[in-house]
Amino acid sequence: MPRIGDPAPAFTAVTTQGDITFPADYAGKWVIFFSHPADFTPVCTSEFMTFASMQQEFAAYNTELVGLSVDGLYSHIAWLRTIKEKIAFRGMKDVEVTFPLIEDVSMRIAEMYGMIMPGEDSTKAVRAVFVIDPEGRIRTVIYYPLSLGRNFDELLRVIKALQTADHFSVATPADWRPGEPVIVPPAGSCGTAKERMDGHDDGVTCADWFFCTKEIPADAVEAAIRAKGTA
Ligand code: BEZ
């Protein structure tokens, strides 16, 4: 099962947007690679409509979406057509899913990525999310069970936080959103710890030597990460 920091396992696949070679086709981009349990199911339908509605928002952060389930291509096509033609959800309707949805009837890719959790269901993928950076490295892994639809604001927050951490060499605290203080890496020497506590490290505020923050205005964060995702 791939872990954070590992290179994303490579594969070729058939999708609703043609064949893909993963992650090579996405070099230089961030990718949210996610699985869903089954086509023609309600929670998955609500998730696909939400993801599709936010696709441009993710693209603004250089982030592409790639879905997978262990259904076949024709099931995928029929389901996506049904979503567009018939389903309304939370103000969304006439929603066209234009990101690739991988067919994986053999479960080859789902097994490779640890998306099958037999204790939950041995014939369906759980709701897995892999965030992969422009170098093809796994940066975040999140799993949800079959019954629980994902929080898509959180997925966008994850993308923004990872890109902010990379660009500014900082970390982001609990529930961080752009514009809120970021965490400065802990002092690596007694000298730096003293400088920070004496207030000599510009722009850095310390509650204690190991807990230091600094302000990065929301517009500076957005300017850095909206133009291009940095890894
Ligand atoms: C759903 O997407 O609604 C769903 C899929 C598999 C099991 C339970 C719910």
Automatic annotation (TrEMBL):
One of its GO terms (biological process) is cell redox homeostasis. It is found in: Cytoplasm. GO terms for cellular component: cytosol. The keyword Cytoplasm applies. Keywords: Antioxidant, Cytoplasm, Disulfide bond, Oxidoreductase, Peroxidase, Redox-active center. Residues 2-164 form the Thioredoxin domain. Its EC number is 1.11.1.24. Its main location: cytoplasm. Substrate binds at residue 127. Disulfide bonds join 206-212. Gene3D superfamilies: Antioxidant, Horf6, Chain A, domain2 (3.30.1020.10), Glutaredoxin (3.40.30.10). Coiled coil: none annotated. It catalyses: a hydroperoxide + [thioredoxin]-dithiol = an alcohol + [thioredoxin]-disulfide + H2O. SUPFAM superfamilies: Thioredoxin-like (SSF52833). The active site is at 44 (cysteine sulfenic acid (-soh) intermediate), 44 (cysteine sulfenic acid (-soh) intermediate). GO terms for molecular function: thioredoxin peroxidase activity. The active site is a conserved redox-active cysteine residue, the peroxidatic cysteine (C(P)), which makes the nucleophilic attack on the peroxide substrate. The peroxide oxidizes the C(P)-SH to cysteine sulfenic acid (C(P)-SOH), which then reacts with another cysteine residue, the resolving cysteine (C(R)), to form a disulfide bridge. The disulfide is subsequently reduced by an appropriate electron donor to complete the catalytic cycle. HAMAP family: Peroxiredoxin. Thiol-specific peroxidase that catalyzes the reduction of hydrogen peroxide and organic hydroperoxides to water and alcohols, respectively. Plays a role in cell protection against oxidative stress by detoxifying peroxides. Belongs to the peroxiredoxin family. AhpC/Prx1 subfamily. Homodecamer. Pentamer of dimers that assemble into a ring structure. This is Peroxiredoxin. It comes from Mycobacterium adipatum.
